[in-house]
Amino acid sequence: MGRLKGREMLAGACTETCELDKRVEVVSLTQGPSHHFFGYFDKTPWNSETRASDRALCHQTSVWAHSPAPGEAAAVGYVTDGVFTEIGCTTTWNFQQGAMLQWLPGAKDRVAFNAVRSGSPHGIVLDLTSGEERAFTQPIAAISPDGLYALSLDFGRLYSVRPDYGYVPAATAHPGVPAPDDDGVWRIALRSGESRLIVSLAQLAEFERSRSEGEFHWVNHPLFNPTGSRLCFVHRYTNAAGTLTTRLLTCGIDGGGLRLLISGLASHATWYDDSNVLAWAGKRALVRQTSRGLIGHLPVGRALKWIYRLLGKPSALKSKLMNDRFIMFDDDANTARDFARGLFWCDGHSSFSPDRRWMVTDTYPDRKRWASVLLWEVGTDDALEVARFWAPPELEDEVRCDLHPRWSPDGTRICVDSAHTGTRQMYALDVSGLMSR
């Protein structure tokens, strides 16, 4: 990273493995000995803007440093005042996104998550007041802001290529099929339960590109814009040599108006407003050039990844060598511009505060295993390092514990997952003192 204004203001550590800006207060939302975590950065665990009455959703498990085995369950529930209340259990989960546990928008007493019903993953909506459970025929990946629709994908297919995001007990409908025409991004109408394929993998494999032999395609990370009028998602495929390409696309909620924003790399997209979507991205011209001709039969992407790991995962390497950076894409105008250029040198899980004044992001562990939470007032000249957490070395790859910062509904707190104490737990960082400076 570049020089961060908050670095010299990091106060005495809350433990030897955690450091905070002196203006930030931290509260441990969960306690051991069990492990607790929320999951991804695109949802909030809290259901209320009133701190005295809010509940924070979380997963509870005894698993520490291995991916969940078939049938290995995690409890789902919420925590208030450090007390965990279990509301169900699931065997369809992972450490990156959990079971897609989330509050149903517009309903402070209804919770959605994925679990096995009738032998396969289903999306579940549970009414905490009545105890009534409704199961949908497909798992849920994202829910529209109005609570009317959900997006789904094949988590079994996803597990075959990215076990850190897929579900181990899930059977894919098309094992080994490169790009099926009856799988892709699905839309579920939450009132009627009707499920509809809106974008197929076969369609994506040929959309604004030439398809080659030996490719394998999948989708991940669908996300509605703030009003639910459009959605973005990543389309990924490997070539015959195993080199990965990622494309960021958008479409309407019926699958129409499909648009390609970038091809090469696109990671951790987040909507700023209805038309602008931010992602850490790049065209990866170096990889494309070396993947052509005779050298295209070599595993270029895997080789570069091996070199990156061998060098200790230097944060600036991908930015300087590959020209990866934060890019703001205007979905309506079909334009792109650099965003916060020079402030951030590595990928992170970024999102904007409810008033869109602030952006929070994080870093992956550096060579000394420290990961940071970074806060930036949009448009200003510097970013603040508000906290640093040490990451145990045994938590890597599929079992890593990313910080995944996410906002509270009132925009004054940031929730992170961290394992710096030797157990996975959730923490709330009160940044209101920084924001009112």
Please render the helix and strand layout as text.
Blueprint: E1 18-20, E2 25-28, E3 35-37, E4 56-61, E5 74-80, E6 83-90, E7 102-103, E8 110-117, E9 120-127, E10 133-135, E11 142-143, E12 149-152, H1 155-161, E13 184-189, E14 195-200, H2 201-205, E15 216-224, E16 230-238, E17 244-252, E18 259-271, E19 276-282, H3 285-290, H4 300-310, H5 317-322, E20 325-330, E21 335-338, E22 351-352, E23 358-362, E24 370-377, E25 384-390, E26 406-407, E27 413-418, E28 425-430, H6 432-435
Antiparallel strand pairs: 1-25, 2-28, 3-4, 4-5, 5-6, 7-8, 8-9, 9-10, 11-12, 12-13, 13-14, 15-16, 16-17, 17-18, 18-19, 19-20, 20-21, 22-23, 23-24, 24-25, 26-27, 27-28
Write a structural description:
This protein is mainly beta and 437 residues long. It has a domain of 196 residues. It has 6 helices and 28 strands. The strands form 6 sheets. It has a 7-stranded antiparallel beta sheet with strand order 15-16-17-18-19-20-21. Strands 1-25-24-23-22 form a 5-stranded antiparallel beta sheet, with no helix packed on it. It has a 4-stranded antiparallel beta sheet with strand order 2-28-27-26, with no helix packed on it.
